[in-house]
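no rush on this but wanted to send it before i forget. what follows is a protein written twice so to speak, once as letters and once as structure tokens for the fold. mainly i need to know what kind of three dimensional shape the backbone takes. thanks a lot i owe you, the record is right below.
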Amino acid sequence: MRDTEILVTDRIDESMSRVIRNGLDAFNDEVAGYADRLPLAVVARDPATGDVLGGALGRSSLGLLFLDLFYLPPPLRSGGLGSRILKRFEEEGQRRGCRSAVLYTISFQAPKFYERHGWRAFGEIPCDPAGTSRIFMTKDLSASMARTDHR
């Protein structure tokens, strides 16, 4: 492997993603003894056109729910739509057997929103612009599962 070339690029094509993703997935499956990763999308759609207006994207894997992206356009940010989407996202994670959930948000985005929904910060790293930070958050889904089971 001495002659292996190293490429640095801002253009990630599907073949790059496939090699890295499939290699890591195979390694994880071998060590864990099973594969349970699934993508997850909870989206808001325009009822007239079916167009996606916003929502949450993530995945579940090995008992953990990852909230990777969450966006709603400004006109849809009041009235509880974001809360409903987050709740459905968490419920689907619980249905899949996830015990915990993780995300990161930026200090100028929505940390207070997540805190209101039971998420807690477990790390913070300064980033740009100056005075901003990435806030890493988690939520225990097993406690919510226990409450749901007793209904």
